[in-house]
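Researcher: Good morning. I'm working through a list of sequences from a screen, and I'd like to move beyond sequence-only analysis. For each chain I'm collecting a predicted structure so we can compare shapes side by side. This is the next one on the list. No need for commentary yet; just the structure.
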Amino acid sequence: MDSSSPEPSLYTVKALFILDNDGNRLLSKYYDHEFYPSMKDQKNFEKKVFNKTHKADNEIAFLEGMTIVYKNSIDLFFYVVGSAQENELMLMSVLNCLFESLSQIFRKNVERRGLLDNMEGVFLIVDEIIDGGVILESDPQQVLQKVNYRADENPLSEQSVAQHISEKLALTTNVLQSAKEQIKWSILK
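Model: Good morning. Structure tokens for this chain:
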């Protein structure tokens, strides 16, 4: 294998953020802390991304060695960021899953007001799709089922939040156990 090509990694997503139509941050999650470690660095990066993309008709941008997929809806801009070598389709699947999940919760109108009114639920959805930069889910139906969303109820009850946290802990434990097994078997080879 060519030593200059990066090793494949499960850590696909470097960052995910949602900005309003003025470029102001509404939600952001950075998964790689070497990638813009301070809040100031993150906001500067977001501003550069917004300035490059808010008038463009594309879905993909390249900036500062990063691959960025994006989508806008009414008064929001959604961004998913990966490394330069990352597969755009993988990043786009994350973006589409997030957008479709929110579309179902907001009954098709994904806009700033609904996002701000349901921020806790938005964070739960993001956490179901991505954990620490690893893509967990790309099917909006599965995401909504996991956060216990019902269209005829309030989007998220306290019980569903507690259930989400306990399922997240169980999943993290399973992922860690699986990683330990893989490391053990790779050492024993």
